Amino acid sequence: MTFATEIDIPRELLRRFECAESVLVLTGAGISAESGVPTFRGGGNTAVWKGMPFDVISSASMVQRNLAAVWEWFDFRRGVLQSLEPNEGHRAIAQWERLVPELTLVTQNVDGLHQKAGSQSVIELHGNIWRARCTSCETRYAITPDEDRSDLCVSCGYPLRPDVVLFGELLPAGAFELAGERASSCDLCFVVGTSSLVYPAASIPEIAKAAGAYLCEINPEPTPLSHICDTVIRGKAGEVLPLISNQNKLSTATANQVNIR
Ligand code: BV8
């Protein structure tokens, strides 16, 4: 395992990135931190909303107990999000879709910033804060910043809820299965900005590793997955990710120059 600090990208990682046919990137709240989106953990504290730890307010039982409180929590977060923009980390991954033959982006985030940065294909394991879902017929509705969201389903009149996977709820049908399938066939797997505590999402890098992929963690702090990574870059996603594609392009350009001479 190699540790990279002061953001020097190990040559082995650049080499693997350059010749990878299939790359999987798993992102968590940390990739949105430089956009101003608060993370849930990290720095030793846990996000709290009105005295409730976030995994209590963001739980299946709270939807049953107090749907209005769940909506208040998500309405607040959407209010914070609507003026925030993707950062260089989101944009680098969006660019990788054009650089890598097969790029699979799997996110635990619900903020929609990967799509806003231009990523065309995003596996959202935990849903999306910009959608609502009927609690009965499961009809989905887009929520836009410039109009009030509705409370009731137009089709059946039942209450709507955030279309987000809460603790104790199943992931969207097929999302984890597709992510697991891609993880088991990728050459290179990046784990970016996640505390790797939430399952089954955190098992995606483990599946990749078990299938022989080269694993790279990008996170200022250690995580329970750090020890299985081939490369750990203790840095910020918005600073590190662009370096991987830029240095890669640089090394390719240099290699081409050598060929030209
Ligand atoms: C389920 C949406 C089946 C809501 C979220 C084993 C197997 C299966 C399930 C479990 C299991 N063990 C326990 C469980 C239950 C539970 C779970 O995992 N609990 C944990 C806490 C122990 N899992 C579930 O309930 C899942 N469902 O398993 O279904 C089932 C169903 C019923 C009965 C039985 C089984 C559903 C989990 C989904 C929950 N919903 N989000 C919302 O957004 O409010 S999860 C929530 O945590 C967010 O989505 C978040 O993304 C996710 C993970 O957190 P991270 O993204 O990692 O963010 P965090 O703040 O923790 O860390 C940020 C990291 O970034 C830090 O490491 C920090 O150092 C780093 N960082 C900071 N700045 C930067 C940076 N990195 C890079 N650059 C920077 N600048």
Give the gist of this structure.
This protein has 261 residues and is of the alpha/beta class. The chain has ten helices and twelve strands. The protein is 36% helix and 20% strand.
How does this structure look, described?
There is one protein chain. The longest helix is centred in the last third of the chain and has 24 residues, at 237-260. The two termini are 36 Å apart. The protein is an alpha/beta fold and 261 residues long. Helix 1 (11-19) crosses helix 10 (237-260), helix 6 runs parallel beside helix 10 and helix 8 runs parallel beside helix 9 (203-210). The strands form 3 sheets. A 7-stranded parallel sheet has the order 1-12-11-10-2-5-6, sandwiched between helices. The chain has a 3-stranded antiparallel sheet with strand order 8-7-9, covered by helices on one side. Strands 3-4 form a two-stranded antiparallel ribbon. The chain folds into 2 domains: 2-37 and 86-126 and 171-260, TPP-binding domain (Rossmann fold); 38-83 and 131-164, SIR2/SIRT2 'Small Domain', CATH 3.30.1600.10. The protein is built from 10 helices and 12 strands. The model is unreliable at 257-261 (pLDDT under 50). The structure holds ligand BV8. Residues 28-30, 33-34, 39-42, 54-55, 58, 108-110, 126, 164-170, 193-195, 197-200, 218-221, 223, 236-237 line the site of ligand BV8.
